[in-house]
Specification:
about 50% helix, mainly alpha, 4 helices, single chain, elongated
């Protein structure tokens, strides 16, 4: 089996708002956080291609989560 990386998108706080939240376009602050996470994942691509998905995931999970802008 192959483990696929998952990009978290957060949670709106109310379960009945999840679908709208996940499907809406991110705001500029959210997009910056997404871009930062993608960049970090791209840095791990050599390890992923070499078959070290667990090592890459460990590195990504250990890094500090980007701070979202205050509303």
């Amino acid at each position: 089996t192959c483990a696929l990386p998952i990009l978290g998108v957060g949670h709106p706080g109310q379960s009945d708002e999840v679908i709208t939240f996940v499907l809406h376009r991110p705001g500029s602050d959210e997009q910056a956080l997404i871009d930062e996470s993608i960049d970090a994942a791209m840095q791990e691509m050599p390890r992923i291609v070499a078959g070290d998905m667990a090592g890459a995931m460990n590195t990504l999970h250990r890094r500090s989560a980007p701070k979202a802008a205050e509303d």
